[in-house]
Design brief:
10 helices; globular; single chain
Length: 173
């Protein structure tokens, strides 16, 4: 439904599934949690593909994965539509620190960084948890700049974010 641009209403969804609203709420929690699950189910395959298709190691690998993921998100029509149709709600679901999507994105990014450190390919000059959080927030500021500051997201800004990540990781600009 979401991919087709349809709004998700839990009451309608429960009726379509032929279950009670209470059952649906037990399964998914609430609409915000369901939206987080939907978005994560779309984000995770993009992340896994970026991890398998990005060559290199260390700083180059992490920046390459970051670039692939965020360029894919920037050009995702369903995501752009979601952001434009209900900007405040989209920002809440996509970037809130209470958001399922945001916390999972930070955790996944942290795992990537830790894997590179454990394999001896990366020695970041700052705490990995903070670094991961800053990387995700930097991507969000580029991807959702239309909501945050009224400026359409651009590939050039994502490329600047990649340069900033490279520097944060201890690499050269």
């Amino acid at each position: 439904m979401w991919l087709k641009g349809e709004r998700i209403h839990l009451a309608s969804l429960a009726a379509e599934l032929n279950i009670g609203r209470a059952t649906l709420f037990r399964w998914v929690g609430n609409k915000d949690l369901l939206m987080g699950e939907i978005l994560w189910s779309l984000y995770e395959p993009v992340r896994l593909q970026a991890l398998t298709e990005t060559p290199g190691e260390g700083v180059d690998f992490v920046v390459g994965v970051y670039r692939r993921i965020n360029y894919t998100l920037l050009h995702s029509e369903p995501l752009r539509r979601f952001v434009h149709e209900d900007p405040e709600y989209a920002l809440k679901i996509l970037t809130s620190s209470q958001s399922t999507l945001h916390s999972r994105t930070v955790e996944a990014n942290t795992r990537t960084l830790r894997d590179q450190v454990a394999s001896g390919h990366l020695n970041p000059p700052m705490n990995i948890d903070s670094l991961s959080y800053f990387m995700v927030r930097l991507a969000e500021s580029c991807l959702y700049s239309d909501i945050i500051c009224g400026r359409e997201p651009r590939e050039e800004e994502l490329e600047d974010a990649c340069t900033a990540v490279r520097i944060l990781l201890g690499g050269k600009a």
